[in-house]
Amino acid sequence: MAVRDLHLLGSAVLRQQSGPVAEVGEETRQLIDDLFETMDAARGIGLAANQVGVASRVAVVGAEGERLVMVNPVITSTEGSDRAEEGCLSIPEVYADVTRPARIVLEALGRDGQPYRLEAEGLLARAIQHEIDHLDGILFLDHLSALKRQLLVSRYRREHRGEGIIKTIRPEHARPE
Ligand code: K1U
Ligand code: ZN
To answer: Are 98 and 140 in contact (CB under 8 A)?
Structure first.
């Protein structure tokens, strides 16, 4: 397993539509394991493959006691509406309230390649939606008004000037064992 570098705002892969996984083989299982390791090292609650530069429909979520693997995930139904704060490992130190469906039904393949169905709400539902957005090239900023988005992006660019679009997760950012 390995902690992979994170792609940050400005990297083209974050705006790409990720392609479906044809078969869950060794390469995909390695990617899944690395996504969990990178998510944990970066102290996130989710991570999509394109955030580590791989444009495949694979993402992981670690929230509310669940460790979810999502390969080719699809949200098949939604209900209600909920507003809460989100952040993104690809846009460090930027947070904003985002409105999303409150309850969802997810269908995806797991690490073993078997299909599963999951009903989710709360932070788990939010994180699942955030990660599936990533696979479609959508960032949480896209859910905000144009004015709010421009404000946050300008501030982010000012505060992270010259830092580049790839971030190596350094050990001091890692979760203690
Ligand atoms: O995909 C990512 O960029 C990871 C992202 C997932 C996420 C956070 C918040 C709501 C929905 C999805 C993060 O893990 S950001 C860091 C974080 O742990 C966090 C930030 C704000 C609220 C809750 C958690
Ligand atoms: Zn994100």
So the answer is: yes
